[in-house]
């Protein structure tokens, strides 16, 4: 396996990674760099770098480990410094972050792909399904994981404030309809965004992972720490749990949910819901060559018309039972087996992958993007699903899948431990947790109210009695949060003025060496009695 890893990494370096920007193009014949694909594709490099450092017994090995780690840093840094803040046609991508925090419009979002050589955007705001909350969330999740592993990716406070604003960008994912992990939105492929469990789950994971993380690592201070309001995480969790195992309004189930219920997000804490979702994916989407993305997915099937961007709703029936199968999803099952210490699952999917990977003359194995039904056997497959031998179609290698396959092999063969690619311990999300005990403190706003309560046998303290701890209403906390992430140089205004939930006011805050508590925000309702 060692030779396979090294050759793949060399392929990345010399064929698809731009030497100037560090971005990974989709292939040798395709110069666009997708945010999501870049994050997944660089994981093999990150894993190999840690394996070298862990097992280095020579200076040469230490040098290789350092170079591999810096390749990762370069890619993540370039996305932050160039793509997310790039000026094109007089407008900065960073301006989109500022607008989207308030409008949550598909035309104000960050772009999903960029030119790998220039970091410029490649299509217009309304010419692609750019709003993909899961892609931005995936970037933040691995930024947090890699920073926790010891990599130094963020170097300035300007970058810190931008990351803080990216947190504000994704924190409302629970109510944002986007185009999802497959960039198409509604399954009918009409370009209609919808609420996607994969986006909500990845946003929840990113918010949890980056909360209270010092982006400068051991060299930071309070200014380089990222803050997340716990209410936003709770909102994401509530919506996610209400959706699963369904992926969205139009998709009954989606294999992309594997990234939510297991590595890398581990966003679901209910083990029963995890198992139910996994079971649904296996029973409804798994085939002989991998899993199809979702039911009636027409992408690259013989019956799809590639000259048209959208389908007619009635066309979906044409794709039934002939959906393309993606080997990449078996790598998720393989990694899941490693994390769960399920040797049977690990062996099952390693053997399955060995049977469908394409072997080159030099012995190198490559993972194709997907397997499709041959055009002359469509009717046969439609009548008898999973009976026809399929052919590899699309990119070869599929960088996202190849990278996860290599990472899974490094784990399965003992070169890496689970904790090394999950230093924030998200894999324990389904573990036992003690019951939450809710404690409520009653304070009298004035001494007059305090005395009145005492007359009725209720002994409480007044706000003045608990000095030096200061008590303020929740609207003050909301105002304070608007200062977080504010950066005049980058024209970032910080968090929009939004309601602060009960979890946000259940914490004590240290502000300029003073301890503050905030009362819950109460919404008064007037009822009209007949």
TrEMBL record:
<comment type="pathway">
    <text>Glycan biosynthesis; glycogen metabolism.</text>
</comment>
<keyword id="KW-0321">Glycogen metabolism</keyword>
<dbReference type="GO" id="GO:0005977">
    <property type="term" value="P:glycogen metabolic process"/>
</dbReference>
<comment type="function">
    <text>Phosphorylase b kinase catalyzes the phosphorylation of serine in certain substrates, including troponin I. The alpha chain may bind calmodulin.</text>
</comment>
<dbReference type="Pfam" id="PF00723">
    <property type="entry name" value="Glyco_hydro_15"/>
</dbReference>
<dbReference type="GO" id="GO:0005964">
    <property type="term" value="C:phosphorylase kinase complex"/>
</dbReference>
<keyword id="KW-0449">Lipoprotein</keyword>
<dbReference type="InterPro" id="IPR011613">
    <property type="entry name" value="GH15-like"/>
</dbReference>
<dbReference type="GO" id="GO:0005516">
    <property type="term" value="F:calmodulin binding"/>
</dbReference>
<keyword id="KW-1003">Cell membrane</keyword>
<keyword id="KW-0472">Membrane</keyword>
<keyword id="KW-0636">Prenylation</keyword>
<protein>
    <recommendedName>
        <fullName>Phosphorylase b kinase regulatory subunit</fullName>
    </recommendedName>
</protein>
<keyword id="KW-0119">Carbohydrate metabolism</keyword>
<keyword id="KW-0597">Phosphoprotein</keyword>
<dbReference type="InterPro" id="IPR012341">
    <property type="entry name" value="6hp_glycosidase-like_sf"/>
</dbReference>
<dbReference type="InterPro" id="IPR008928">
    <property type="entry name" value="6-hairpin_glycosidase_sf"/>
</dbReference>
<feature type="domain" description="GH15-like">
    <location>
        <begin position="13"/>
        <end position="496"/>
    </location>
</feature>
<dbReference type="GO" id="GO:0005886">
    <property type="term" value="C:plasma membrane"/>
</dbReference>
<comment type="similarity">
    <text>Belongs to the phosphorylase b kinase regulatory chain family.</text>
</comment>
<keyword id="KW-0112">Calmodulin-binding</keyword>
<dbReference type="InterPro" id="IPR008734">
    <property type="entry name" value="PHK_A/B_su"/>
</dbReference>
């Amino acid at each position: 396996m060692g030779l396979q890893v090294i050759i793949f990494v060399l392929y990345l370096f010399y064929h698809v990674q731009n030497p100037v920007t560090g971005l990974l193009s989709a292939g040798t014949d395709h110069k666009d760099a997708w945010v999501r694909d870049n994050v997944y594709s660089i994981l093999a490099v990150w894993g190999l770098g840690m394996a070298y450092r862990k097992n280095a017994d020579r200076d040469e090995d230490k040098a290789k480990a350092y170079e591999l780690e810096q390749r990762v840093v370069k890619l993540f840094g370039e996305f932050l410094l160039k793509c997310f803040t790039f000026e094109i046609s007089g407008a900065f991508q960073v301006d989109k972050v500022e607008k989207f925090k308030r409008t949550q419009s598909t035309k104000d979002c960050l772009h999903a792909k960029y030119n790998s050589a220039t970091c410029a955007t490649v299509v217009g705001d309304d010419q692609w399904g750019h709003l993909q909350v899961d892609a931005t969330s995936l970037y933040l999740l691995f930024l947090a994981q890699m920073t926790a592993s010891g990599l130094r990716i963020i170097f300035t406070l300007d970058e810190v404030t931008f990351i803080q604003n990216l947190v504000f960008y994704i924190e409302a994912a629970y109510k944002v309809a986007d185009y999802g992990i497959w960039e198409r939105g509604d399954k009918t492929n009409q370009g209609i965004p919808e609420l996607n469990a994969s986006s909500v789950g990845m946003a929840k994971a990113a918010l949890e992972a980056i909360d209270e993380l010092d982006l400068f690592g051991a060299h930071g201070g309070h200014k380089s720490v990222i803050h997340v309001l716990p209410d936003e995480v709770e909102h994401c969790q509530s919506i996610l749990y209400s959706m699963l195992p369904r992926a969205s309004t139009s998709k009954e189930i989606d294999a992309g949910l594997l990234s939510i219920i297991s590595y890398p997000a581990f966003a679901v804490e209910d083990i029963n819901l995890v198992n139910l979702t996994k079971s649904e994916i296996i029973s409804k989407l798994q085939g002989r060559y991998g899993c199809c993305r979702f039911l009636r997915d027409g992408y690259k099937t013989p019956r799809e018309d590639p000259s048209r961007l959208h389908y007619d709703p009635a066309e979906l029936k044409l794709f039934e039972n002939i959906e393309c199968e993606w080997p990449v999803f078996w790598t998720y099952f393989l990694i899941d087996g490693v994390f769960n210490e399920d040797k049977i699952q690990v062996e099952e999917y390693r053997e399955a992958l060995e049977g469908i990977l394409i072997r080159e003359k030099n012995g190198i194995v490559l993972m194709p993007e997907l397997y499709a039904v041959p055009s002359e056997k469509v009717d046969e497959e439609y009548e008898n699903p999973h009976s026809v031998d399929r052919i590899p179609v699309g990119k070869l290698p599929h960088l996202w899948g190849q990278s996860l396959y290599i990472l899974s092999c490094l784990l399965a063969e003992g070169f890496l431990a689970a904790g090394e690619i999950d230093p924030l311990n998200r894999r324990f999300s389904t573990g036992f947790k003690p019951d939450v005990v809710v404690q409520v403190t009653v304070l009298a706003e004035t001494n007059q109210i305090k005395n009145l309560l005492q007359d009725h046998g209720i002994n409480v303290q007044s706000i003045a009695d608990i000095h030096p701890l200061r008590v303020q209403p929740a609207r003050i906390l909301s105002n304070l949060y608007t200062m977080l992430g504010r950066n005049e140089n980058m024209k970032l205004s910080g968090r929009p003025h939004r309601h602060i939930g009960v979890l946000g006011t259940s914490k004590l805050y240290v502000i300029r060496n003073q301890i503050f508590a905030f009362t819950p925000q109460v919404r008064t309702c007037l009822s009209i009695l007949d």
